[in-house]
Design brief:
This protein has 137 residues and is mainly β. It contains two helices and nine strands. It has helices at residues 2-11, 29-32; strands at 23-24, 35-38, 43-46, 51-58, 68-79, 84-90, 105-110, 113-119, 129-135.
């Protein structure tokens, strides 16, 4: 019985929060080049020229949760057949992690709202999602 308990404890659990409401969507660069806002008022302004400015925007770096980031940088767009992905690179390293590239955001459309989202935190702790929104054009 002890061996079974130890085995179950060692396996841990891996639960991933589902994506936020919405359908995967491929967005044009012009649709991405706008200001995106998170639930705490952080913003990420993507510009047509491939640069951005962030102000206390939520980000995914390793298994850290609750991280925000401010500053300028560059962004790029990729996609598969169903969903746009947005990667950002900050000009300066994050003060807590030393990283410059947080995890990429994936695009969703929920009614008249566009979303960029990424899972954050430790998956063993039912990590939440970082969700940025912008009205659909």
């Amino acid at each position: 019985m002890l061996a079974t308990a130890l085995a179950l404890t060692a396996c841990g659990r891996l639960t991933v929060m589902p994506p936020p409401d919405g359908e995967p969507v491929v967005l044009k660069r012009a649709e991405l080049a706008t200001t995106w806002t998170d639930a705490d008022g952080g913003t990420l302004t993507l510009k047509q020229d491939g640069t951005f400015v962030a102000d206390k925007v939520c980000v995914a770096v390793a298994w850290e949760d609750g991280l925000t980031w401010s500053g300028p940088g560059t962004w790029g767009q990729g996609s598969n057949k169903k969903q746009s992905l947005v990667g950002v690179t900050f000009d300066a390293a994050h003060p807590e992690t030393g990283e410059r590239e947080p995890g990429p955001y994936a695009a969703l459309r929920h009614g008249k709202v566009l979303k960029l989202w990424v899972a954050i935190g430790d998956p063993d702790n039912d990590y939440p999602n970082c969700v940025l929104t912008s009205p659909a054009g």
